[in-house]
Write a structure and sequence with these properties.
Chain A: It holds the Pfam family ABC_tran. Chain A: One of its GO terms (cellular component) is membrane. Chain A: Keywords: ATP-binding, Cell membrane, Membrane, Nucleotide-binding, Translocase, Transport. Chain A: This is ABC transporter domain-containing protein. The complex is a heterodimer of chains A (about 260) and B (about 325). Chain A has about 260 residues and is α/β, with parallel strands linked by helices. Chain A has helices at about 55-60, 100-105, 115-120, 125-135, 140-145, 155-165, 185-200, 210-220, 240-245, 255-260; strands at about 15-20, 30-35, 40-45, 70-75, 75, 85-90, 170-175, 205-210, 220-225, 230-235. Chain A has a single domain (about 15-260), classed as 3-Layer(aba) Sandwich (Rossmann fold), CATH 3.40.50. Chain A is built from 10 helices and 10 strands. In chain A, strand 4 and strand 5 form a beta hairpin. Chain B folds into 3 domains: about 15-75, no CATH class; about 80-130, no CATH class; about 135-334, Orthogonal Bundle (MetI-like fold). Chain B has helices at about 1-10, 20-35, 40-55, 60-75, 135-170, 175-190, 195-205, 210-235, 235-245, 250-285, 290-300, 305-334; strands at about 80-85, 100-110, 120-130. A 3-stranded antiparallel β-sheet of chain B has the order 1-3-2. The two termini of chain B are about 55 Å apart. The chains are: A alpha/beta (about 260), B mainly alpha (about 325).
Chain lengths: ~260, ~325
């Protein structure tokens, strides 16, 4: 955190140029995607399963290697080293169930922690304090902090996930279906928390969702993805029935989608 | 309806068929041939003889004769130790070991008188040092040594298997060549039985616990590294992906996302290997690799079956006690 590079104010939080990814023996997951995310904005990538949302986010963090294209975060090309400027919230939480909440949050800072400290799980005091502050910010208590993640509810787990994503003070937060396994009420709470926490820190959020109502409620900007193409890009107000049916037109999801659109 | 009439013609897969019968018949033929080669007929007739003899329908059986002598000699088991004083070096009558006393027996000793060429009988006073529980204490000491051998072997094996498992795990091995080499090394370790490696290690390191510890360590590494690695490969990927996305190194991911997951399984495996090593440590003593087995082999070869009895009893009780303890321990931890 001490060696964080000074931000270049003019450049967007995320800039994708001609990003393309096709899996072996599969369809093209991302086809020539170009995109700019402004600093501090809350963008939702909306799409059905298989539309390329996950692949898009995974390309940015390097979990998937794109075939072509360029990724720049705050104007700098994405490398393994600048991963620390990105925080990621995962669909299935991605937490170590047998570690405590605090240990999971501190693990988010693993890339900038010496190996011997990792081995002993002896994080520097500033990291420990920061983990406590973040856990308090996402609405958990000291008891939660010292409890194994296994013992937490789904909503609490995702709160830990958000705290972990924030520990490196990222300028960009990626959230891959952060509320996919949560009930509607908890989903709304988590989305609100994600939005507020990001806004306080001036971080941009790129969040993939398949729930239209959540996208409308929280997004500053919605990017509709279908078959690896961006087919909608604009504020929620512009998201009309025509746009929605274009986004969710995948052939394998017939009748219930009409219901969702209506 | 067309759908249901089509369903009438469905064929469901049957669990058995004529092929199953054929395989069973072949297995039966092969096992019959093998049983003949393994002299099952002799075994059955001997067991039958023994059964008849034990209910009094037959005079004696081979099993009865063979086992009877040993078992008779075994009881009462040897608890005390009684040694001629002149064989103890150095011997100080003022400082006897705890709870021991000196027993003097007069012995008639015959010898040929070279002058008269007659057998003379001389009465000699012979002193013995008697320790009432001396032999039991000695055997218990040997048992402790056996447990020490097993514990060291298990500890060293665990310490070596942890990094080796990393190289053996397909998803974390640094290079396919390293993976192949590590896997072959581990298979090789697993393939040599302890008793055989101990045989050679005794030649290299001489009699005693060193050979035993090494023999058990090699085999344990072969077992632990394989199963540790398989646990790593089977660990849930979500936490690993999350740390990878945060830019963590492989070591960090293994430590923070994999190890916590596999730890219960590792504990269970490590306890199993300790349990097994204690049992194996008693066996490899037979080829001179230290511990209670070495004592057992020596006494057995000298036909001192009362001492063999003591040793067997101590082994039996120890293994049973350790089994109880480790079962309870495992239940608490895992």
């Amino acid at each position: 955190m001490t060696d964080r590079l000074p931000p270049a104010p003019a450049s967007p939080a995320l800039e994708l140029t001609a990003l393309t990814k096709s899996y072996r023996n599969g369809p093209t997951a991302l086809d020539d995607i170009s995109l700019k995310i402004e600093q501090g904005s809350f963008c939702v990538v909306l799409g059905s399963s298989g539309s390329g949302k996950s692949t898009l986010l995974k390309c940015i963090t390097g979990l998937v290697t794109p075939c072509r294209g360029e990724i720049r975060v705050k104007g700098r090309p994405m490398t393994r080293r600048n991963l620390r400027t990105i925080g990621m919230v995962h669909q299935d939480f991605g937490l170590s169930e047998r570690l405590t909440s605090a240990q999971n949050v501190m693990a988010g800072a693993a890339a900038i922690t010496p190996l011997w400290r990792i081995l002993l799980q002896a994080y520097p005091l500033p990291v420990q304090r920061k983990a406590c502050q973040l856990l308090a910010r996402v609405g958990l208590t000291e008891a939660h902090a010292n409890r194994r993640v296994k013992a937490l509810s789904g909503g609490q787990k995702q709160r830990v996930g958000i705290a972990r994503a924030l520990i490196t003070d990222p300028s960009l937060i990626l959230a891959d279906e952060p509320v996919a396994s949560l009930d509607p009420r908890t989903s709304a709470e988590i989305m609100q928390l994600l939005k507020d926490a990001a806004r306080e820190r001036g971080a941009a959020v790129l969040c993939s969702l398949h729930q239209i109502d959540l996208a409308r409620a929280y997004a500053d900007r919605i990017i509709g993805l279908q078959g690896g193409h961006i087919i909608f890009d604009g504020p929620p107000a512009q998201l009309d029935r025509a746009a929605l049916s274009a986004i969710f037109k995948a052939e394998d999801s017939g009748p219930h989608l009409k219901f969702a659109v209506a | 309806m067309p759908a249901s009439s089509a369903a009438q013609a469905w064929k469901l897969k049957q669990p058995y068929g004529w092929r199953t019968l054929l395989v069973l018949a072949a297995l039966f033929v092969f096992s019959a041939i093998s049983a003949e080669r393994m002299q099952f007929d002799r075994m059955l007739s001997q067991i039958g003889d023994f059964a008849l003899a034990s209910v009094g329908l037959k005079q004696e059986s081979q099993i009865g004769k063979g086992m009877g002598r040993v078992v008779q000699d075994m009881f009462p088991i040897a608890i005390a130790e009684r040694r001629p004083v002149e064989l103890i070096e150095p011997f100080d009558e003022a400082k006897l070991p705890l709870f021991s006393h000196i027993e003097t027996v007069s012995v008639e000793q015959s010898s040929l008188n070279p002058e008269t060429l007659q057998m003379d009988t001389v009465s000699l006073e012979k002193a013995y040092l008697v320790e009432p529980v001396g032999y039991l204490v000695y055997v218990l000491g040997k048992m402790v040594e056996t447990i020490e051998i097993a514990a060291w072997a298990s500890l060293v094996a665990i310490l070596f298997s942890l990094p080796l498992a990393w190289l053996c795990a397909g998803n974390y091995s640094p290079h396919p060549l390293v993976y192949g080499a590590a896997r072959s090394l581990v298979s090789f370790f697993r393939a040599i039985p302890e008793l055989i490696s101990a045989l050679f290690l005794v030649l290299a390191f001489g009699f005693g616990p060193v050979a035993g510890i090494l023999a058990l360590t090699f085999h344990s590494i072969g077992f632990l590294a394989k199963f540790y690695a398989e646990d790593i490969e089977g660990a849930e990927t979500a936490p690993q992906q999350a740390l990878k996305a945060a830019g963590a190194s492989n070591f960090t991911i293994l430590r923070l996302a994999v190890l916590p997951q596999v730890l219960p399984s590792y504990t269970g495996l490590s306890f199993y290997i300790l349990d097994r090593n204690i049992r194996m440590a008693t066996v490899i003593g037979l080829v001179g690799a230290g511990g209670i087995g070495q004592e057992l082999k020596g006494r057995f070869d000298m036909f001192q079956y009362d001492r063999v009895g003591t040793i067997l009893l101590v082994i039996f009780l120890t293994v049973m006690a350790l089994d109880l303890i480790s079962a309870r321990f495992r239940r608490d931890i895992v």
